[in-house]
Amino acid sequence: MEAPSAVIFDVGNVLYDWNPRYLYERLIGDDRALDAFLANVATKAWHFQHDAGRPFAETSAELAAAHPEFAEMIALWGPRFDEQIPHALPGMKELVTELDESGVPLFAITNFSGEFWPPFRNRESALFDRFRGIVVSGDEKLVKPDPAIYALALARFGLAGSDAVFVDDREDNVAAAFDAGIHGLLFTGADKLRADLAALGLL
Questions:
Q1: Distance between CA atoms of residues 85 and 159, nearest Å
Q2: pLDDT above 70: percentage of residues in the chain
Q3: Keyword Secreted, does the record have it (predicted)?
Q4: Is 174 part of any domain?
């Protein structure tokens, strides 16, 4: 495989720290009740429907019907989703800036609700304006690790697989990138990623 010249990032838990707890710990004062709500009601598996393109109005109505005692809390997930992603992960804004300023083309493939993405992207425009293209799963109704989202992204970005390295925190998503002919790196932190990108000649 040829050395890559571009970097494709995941967003949640690579560039930014996403955790629903950041929002709901402000709203549910008891830790055990908070843990139970996030484990059994508003779960990450439930949220994955938004990444796949289902409207929040539908999913929240269904969940509230199943758990009417939590209807008010469920209703806040969408309007206050931004609060689940309060900050970038350590060192990542600096790394993106360095790559961009050295001329490395930057792209992203993110499993993210098409409804929730625009407010977050606008909030973080200083970072995302450095990206030449971003594929959002909720808009495409395709989610990683579906091979189709990688094929769509490469076509849209104008890249061959060997042109790019893909960075994600999930092993299955990285494996799917390899299967699509893309260099893949499993993200465990900015320092390790910096070393991995340097080894590929990108830093």
A1: 29
A2: 100
A3: no
A4: yes
Mean pLDDT of the chain: 97
Separation of alpha carbons 5 and 154, rounded Å: 13
pLDDT band at 1 (very low <50, low <70, confident <90, very high): low
The domain of 175 spans: 6-17+87-199
Burial letters 162-185, b for 16+ CB under 10 A, else e: ebbbbbbebeebbebbeebebbbb
Kind plus residue range of the DSSP H or E element containing 1: none
Detail the DSSP E strand segments found in the chain: 6-9, 16-17, 87-88, 106-110, 133-136, 164-168, 183-186
One domain, residues 99 and 192: yes
Residue 58 clears pLDDT 80, i.e. is over it:
yes
Cα–Cα dist 39/166, whole Å:
30
Check: CB of residue 185 under 8 Å from CB of residue 166: yes
Number of domains present in the structure of the chain: 2
pLDDT, tens digit (0-9, with 9 covering 90-100), for 30-57: 999 999 999 999 999 999 999 999 999 9
